[in-house]
Structure formats: C-alpha cells, structure tokens
Amino acid sequence: MSIIFNKESKTFHLTAKNTSYVMQIIKDGYLAHLYWGKKIKEYNHSNQIRYRDRGFSPNPVTKDRTFSLDTLPQEYPAFGITDFRKPAYQIQLEDGSTITDLRYESHEIFPGKPRLEGLPATYTEKEDEAETLEVTMADPLISLRVIIRYTVFHHLDVITRSVQLVNDGKRSVKVLKAASMNIDFRKSGFEMISLYGAHERERFIERTAVRRGVQSIESRRGTSSHQQNPFLALVGKDTKEHSGEAYGINLVYSGNFEGSVEVDQLEMTRITFGINPFDFSWLLNPGETFQTPEAVLVYSANGLGEMSRTYHSLYRSHLCRGMYRDKERPILINNWEATYFHFNEEKIKEIASKGKDLGIELFVLDDGWFGKRDDDRSSLGDWHVDRRKLPNGLNHLAEHIRSQGMEFGLWFEPEMVSEDSDLYREHPDWCIHVPQRRRSTGRHQLILDFSRKEVCDEIIERLSAILSTTSITYVKWDMNRHMTEVGSAGLPPERQREVAHRYVLGLYRVMEEVTSRFPHILFESCSGGGGRFDPGMLYYMPQTWTSDNTDAISRLKIQYGTSLVYPIISIGAHVSDVPNHQVNRTTSLNIRGHVAMSGNLGYELDLTKLSEEDQQTVIKQVNHYKEIRSIVQFGDFYRILSPFEGNDTAWMFVTKDKQESVFTHFTILDEGNSPFKSVKMQGLDPNKKYLIVELDESYYGDELMNVGINIPKVQGDFTSVMWRLRVVEN
Ligand code: DGJ
Q: Which residues line ligand 1 (CB under 6 A)?
C-alpha cells in the first residue's frame, strides 16, 4: 500500500519510491499540506500545524482568532475566505461574486491510474505500478465539487496531480482559474530553476533566489513556447547536480501556463502550477466537468541529476506511447538546411541516395513540397503535392527512396493556414480571429481555429489522405507562430476566453486521431525548432525537434538545458553545414557529430556537396552511432560539466545494468598554456572494471569516478572526445 489514510488523525501518507507526501484534513474540513520530501516510515505529526493569532489574518467559520487560512499550508487554496495569497482556483458565480469555500467531503484510494479525458497524461500499463487517491472537496452552497487527484508511482519518485471541477448545481459558474497543483512549504530560502529562451536559444537554465512576494513564469503565446518551458524546480541553495534536494514540477500541457512561487509573511513558500488564468475563463454549465491538465511532481534527495533521470524514465515509459516508444530511432537526413524551399525531384533523390551510401536510415522531405510554396508566403492548408517540383507525385518519390532501402518522412504544418491558400479563400473564418479586427500574421500565416470541431475534422481528413496514400513512416509536425487576436467564430461571446484552451484540446484530439490512424508512423513535433518541447506533445509524438539552431556550440547549452526534464531519446539533434546558418560559426565535423550523437541523431545539410574526407567521417559517425544508439537513447544520463558555467562541457550515458557507457567532453575555446584537465565520471559501478575503448585503457569504476580521467589536450577551438566504456571485469 503506498497510500495510507489514518482515520483518527485524518492524515494521508503517500509514498513513492523514496518519497513521502503527507496531508491532513484539519478542522472545518480544510485540506492542509504537511510534508513532501524524503521517504519516512511513518508520519507521527512531528511538524504538526501550530496556530497563533496573527494580526490581519482573519478567521473563517471557527471564530477562533488563531485559525486563519492565511497562515495555513494548503493543498488547493481559495481566495477571499481569509487567505490573501495567490489562490489555486477561482470561480465566478452568476451573481458576479467570486467566493467559494471547499471542504473535505470524501476520498477514495484505488490501484492504477485513470486516464484524463481528452488530455495527455502519464499512464500505467499494469495496475500495480501506481496507486491513486481522489479527495473530493465540496462547496455545498453552490453545489461545486472539486476532485483533487494524486497518483504515486511505486518505482519512481513521482507523484502526479490534477483536478476536476464539477458543477452539480442548477446555475452556471465561470472558472476563472483552475491550477493543476498547489503546495505550501513551511519554509523559505529556496532557489528556483526555470528554462527560458527564444527561437534558436531554447531552454537555457535560469537559477535565482526565491524572494519574498510573487515570482512566476508564464506563457501567454498560445503554446508552451520557446520563451518559458512549463517547468519549475525549487531547490536548496546548496543543491547541485549530484547532491541536495530538488522539487520539480512539470505541466503536461502545450498551451498557456503559469507557474508561480510566492513567499509569504510567515516565510512559507507556495508553488502553484496550471493553465494560465490570464485571458482565460471557462463557462461550466450545470452537470459539466472541467478537467485540468496533469502536473508531474518529482522529488530528488540527490540533486538535479537524479531529478532529471526520474523525469526521463517516467516520460520514456509512462508518457510516450506507440510502437516507437521502446525502439531505437532512425538516423535521418532532412533537406531543410540543404535546399530550403528550392528543390526538385532529382535533387531530393540525389541527397537521399547519398544518405543511403553513408548509412543513413530515413529521408525527411521538409517544407515546400505542397501547394505553390516557393517561400513562406503561401499554401499552408493546401496539402496536395506541388507537381512543378515533384512531377511524379509524392508516392513515386517515397517508393523510389524506399526501394533504395531508406524510409521516407514528410513535413506538415497542420495547424496553420496561409492567407494565400485555397483553404483560406474557401473558409476565411476558419482561422483564429476577432471580427472586424486586423488579423496579425506571423511568418505570413494565420492559425487555424482548432477550437472548432469541423476545422479539426477537415485537417484530420486532409492529412489522412496523404498519409494513407504515400509510403511514409515518419512525420515532422511543425507549428510556426504564436497566437494573436485570439477569438473564434464558433463560440458565443461568453466563451471567447476559452479559445486558447479549446485550441489545445482540439489539437490533442487531432493528434490522437492521426497518430492512432497511422500507428506505423514515427511522429516528431516541432515549433520553429523547440517552441513546443513539452510533455503534452511527447504523449502523442515521442520525439521533438529541439531547436532551429543547429550550431554545435549553441547546442551544448540547448541540449544540456533540455535534458533537465526531457529524455535524450526525445531530443532531435542534427549535424548541419558550416559556416552554420544560424550563427555563422565554423566548427569541425567531429564536434558537430559528437553533439548530435548526444541526442537523437540526424543530418541536415546537402550530403552531395561533402568532400570525400567528410563523407568518410560521416560514415564513421553513423556506424559509431548505431553501436552506441541504445546506450544514448535508453541509458541513464549524467551531466558532469555545465556549458552555462565554463569553457568545458561533459556528460555521459550509462546503461541501466552499468555494463556500457558513453562519455563525451567538449572544450569551447582553446586557451594558451591551458592547465591539464581531468574529469570525474559518474554513474558507473565502482566495483566493475571498464575498458575505455578509444584509449585502450582499463580502470575500475571507483577510480574513474573518484580520481577522474585525464582529458587529452587537443589544439584549437571547439574540440571534443567521445569514448565508449565497456565492462571487462565484473
Ligand atoms: C521551422 C522548423 O523548425 C524547421 O526545421 C523547418 O521545418 C522550417 N520550419 C520549415 O518551414
């Protein structure tokens, strides 16, 4: 039993692998948070809640001057009934008031984990992998029921949370805010880690002291965004990669979100995460339910590295789905940076054929194959092949490539419409817009209104028409702008603030339908590079194009930051041309290979223009990657040196049984008369002896991890080594 309810003290004790989470129904039925941290055998109220009369913290029903919600650590707090901190939810009644008061009504504990209707979520395959608690809170005055759901995974330090709001009353209510989780820690002094960025600079790591007052990360862009990722961690000041406590929260959602942290007058820290309440409301009619997305809570007592490895394991096997989940992913060649929009059948065949010679397994035809798309000004929505470029059609090309022994993949941007397209001319009201207002474009395009069922249905059919008639085994699903003038022609005025969330729900339905109609297709999501790298997307598509910035040096930070939460197998990483198209930097093919091989490897350059020497290098890289692929894609990941902290970066991958490993070290700039370098490895078995294949040297794991290994001096900027380790003595 990993969820225990003590009837006398009305305490719930949830235990995951090495985690305990405790809460209590206190007087008047409020649900208090007591503990989240390292596993304890039994909770006996050593930190029981203490009460004191605090000035200006008023008292609800009890008339007890020492009892105020303002000073209580809570699980799902309201505003307006004595707590002045940011609430987890807010409901507006028909009379305009926004006061609700939730009290414990009942609870249920059961094995397994239920699905979330219409939303992506982590899952179990067997009931005994997890246990779920549903606590029902109610406000009888307005017949509102709120079901707070917790699932604990037995073999991982994971607790998931989500909330359902049910209107059992006779009148409609408006949900103004419904966070997925809230925790009030009875302490302050945390540091907060978030992932910020921009197009071509995604998921850089920000670590700041949490100050008194409110600080938050949000997206108001309609997608989870390049700018902030739906992830926050609270950590101790001394938490490092391999030591200290880390509390991670990641929202399984691809739209507008808010994660906020508030330190209050009594040095308590409140963390709340969910759909962004900004520009949001949801009309809940009698009998209707609103389901929030899921928040994934990971606790680590052993630093950020362990937190990341927990997220990786969970997402690899309890979030990603489909036949590619546990399969090694194909090495691909994508033509985008090779040709952009300017290609024809012959050119594509040449690149593919060269790719085949070099050992690459999948050819991906990127943007520009449909409508009359010679640049980004037209044709999105017109998903039929451009015969000017591909006179023999798509399937001919696909079959040709497949006959050579390579798979064929195709790019789509299904959520978009160009003003210059037949689809837009036919259905000008099918885009997100506000009547009589300008329709601002981004990359010359508008966003299809996926809050409307008929729009989603049409796109499902248009995609299916191509996918069912072409020999395709891979799709790159792109999305290249953020939302403006958010409104829908399909919704009444009182529901206009539902559009952004309904869009995401529509998108999830489309992806569910398309991916289940074509289970043999490997889907990779993309949004101008890594603008929608979130667990919501990973539920449908098990890999993501990480960034449009393919420069190896920029990628060190991007991939390092991404790895904080997302599994290596999901991180699309390509070797591209030099000088690099985004930052104009020239780096060796060697380091470009080592960086891309530290993720899900692909190539994105004109292979037909490679010199003989470079072709030989690519052949070696491809063969090498095939040998280490399962270690990189399914092994445990250890970050050793951070590109955010110095000139050197190092990381390694270790198989679960610790029999094999891949170690990689990068130096950005050469330095005159530089000191000798040696690096302590991580994650190995101290008692096993490993051969470092490339050096032909053997050491016990304890020596490599405690003494360290010398890194050879290579002259010049942008250098790297990648070594394989194999157990030679168990
Ligand atoms: C943005 C993507 O991130 C690129 O890889 C490429 O597919 C372009 N879109 C195509 O328009």
A: 336, 366-367, 411, 478, 480, 526, 528-529, 545, 548
Same fold, 3-318 and 641-729: no
In total, the chain counts a number of residues equal to 730
Say how far apart CA 100 and CA 83 lie, in whole Å. 12
Q: What is the largest CA-CA distance in the chain?
A: 84
Q: What pLDDT, on a 0 to 100 scale, did the predictor assign at position 1?
A: 67
State the CATH class of domain 332-634: alpha beta
CA of 226 to the centre of ligand 1 (A): 14
CATH among 2.30.130.40, 3.40.50.300, 3.40.630.30, 2.60.40.1180 for 641-729: 2.60.40.1180
State the Cα–Cα distance between residues 707 and 583, nearest whole angstrom: 38
> What atom of ligand 1 comes closest to residue 527's alpha carbon?
3
Q: Supply the residue whose CA is at minimum distance from atom 11 of ligand 1.
A: 367
> Does domain 3-318 correspond to CATH entry 2.70.98.60?
yes
Q: Mean pLDDT over residues 498-519, rounded?
A: 98
In the annotation, is 366 catalytic? no
Q: Model confidence over 555-605: pLDDT tens digits?
A: 999 999 999 999 999 999 999 999 999 999 999 999 999 999 999 999 999
The strand pairing partners of 699, in sequence order, are 690
Domain ranges of the chain: 3-318, 332-634, 641-729
Rg (CA), the chain: 27
Residue 707 confidence (pLDDT): 98
Q: Which two tokens stand for residue 553?
A: 């040096």
pLDDT in tens, 67-82: 999 999 999 999 999 9
Does residue 279 register a pLDDT over 70? yes
CB-CB contact of 228 with 219 (8 Å): yes
Q: Mark whether 548 is an active-site residue.
A: yes
Residue to mutate (ligand 1; options 199, 366, 418; most atoms within 8 A of CB): 366
pLDDT at 730 over 90: no
